[in-house]
Amino acid sequence: MLVDQRQGARRILRVRAMWLADGGSPQPARTSDLGTAGISITTEYRVDTGRTGQVVWEMLVDGRPQVLTARAKVAHCIYGDGAFKVGFSFLPLDNETQTAIAKFMR
What region, left, alpha or beta, does residue 100 occupy, with left being phi > 0 and alpha being psi -120 to 50 degrees? Predict the structure, then answer.
């Protein structure tokens, strides 16, 4: 049985996203859930564990759409149901992104 090793609370968030690995090209994705410590996406591309880069997504903040960008490190990448499920741990967030995520988590 697999044990969920993610830290902190998280909420479902299903929006379009993009993963941009350091030194790589943008890869389209969709978010699955979001928490204060990280984000989970699904993509058709395999992503190496330990790789760093940026995750970009749009979500409503105070009723307005806002594009958020976060530096993140790949914690795991698992293939299932025809797509790769990738879990990211956030690297230090800028204040704007951290505030937006905190508001979403309320």
Answer: alpha
Beta strands in 36-82 (DSSP E): 38-43, 52-61, 64-80
How big is the chain, counted in residues? 106
* Cα 55 → chain centroid: 6
Q: pLDDT tens-digit profile of 19-53?
A: 999 999 999 999 999 999 999 999 999 999 999 99
Q: What's this model's pTM, rounded to 2 decimal places?
A: 0.89
How do strand 64-80 and strand 52-61 relate by DSSP bridges?
antiparallel
Q: Smallest Cα–Cα separation from 89: which of 59, 57, 53? A: 53
